[in-house]
Amino acid sequence: xxxxxAPRDPxxxxxxxxxxxxxxRDDEADIVEGVRAEGAILVELAAxxxxxRMVGHVLFTRMRCPDPRRRIAALGPVAVTxxxxxxxxxxxxxxxxxxxxxALGAEAVVVLGHPDYYPRFGFSAEAxxxxxxxxxxxxxxxxxxxxxxxxxxxLKLDYPAAFG
Length: 164
Ligand SMILES: CC(C)(COP(=O)(O)OP(=O)(O)OC[C@H]1O[C@@H](n2cnc3c(N)ncnc32)[C@H](O)[C@@H]1OP(=O)(O)O)[C@@H](O)C(=O)NCCC(=O)NCCS
Prior knowledge:
With 164 residues, this protein is α/β, with parallel strands linked by helices. It contains three helices and eight strands; from the N terminus they run βααβββαββββ. It has helices at 12-23, 27-37, 89-103, and strands at 3-5, 41-50, 53-62, 72-80, 108-112, 131-132, 141-145, 155-156. A six-stranded mixed beta sheet has the order 1-2-3-4-5-7, sandwiched between helices. A two-stranded parallel ribbon has the order 6-8. Strand 4 (72-80), helix 3 and strand 5 form a beta-alpha-beta unit. The chain is globular. Bound molecules: coenzyme A.
């Protein structure tokens, strides 16, 4: 059981540690900081084992989708401290984050992630068929419509520069 909160400025070092430890490299931690620097964060959550021990983190980025105008979020990276993986922390972070995106008016969420992990939240590769993005055609590229029909017409999605 973990507590999930929105992280605060002093938590940034812990976020960097957890994301880098989970992925075994710095790239994803750099993405988190880059999205933050661009002001493109829609939802960010941290999971706490104790009030001082952060064990997980998830980011949802506000995407640019001007034509047709859609409010779309991108999930990721999601990271759980290696010693605490496979205990439900990642799922709790993703579920809570998706709920918050919906509450904030997001019409859909996209993800570039493991095709075995994200379908449990409703993501599918079929849902991205109308989306033109740098990741189109990649089986790891999946989406979840939060509003019926949100992904039923062609749309072009721009990732923030932080995603490289
Ligand atoms: C992926 C990650 C966020 C999942 O969070 P978690 O808290 O460990 O996982 P949960 O307990 O929520 O879910 C467990 C299920 O996820 C799947 N899963 C978790 N880690 C997995 C992995 N490394 N490979 C494949 N499936 C995995 C399994 O289906 C697992 O179910 P099982 O334990 O019954 O086999 C976490 O393991 C992590 O930080 N991994 C390293 C970084 C990463 O790859 N992030 C995702 C990028 S798309």
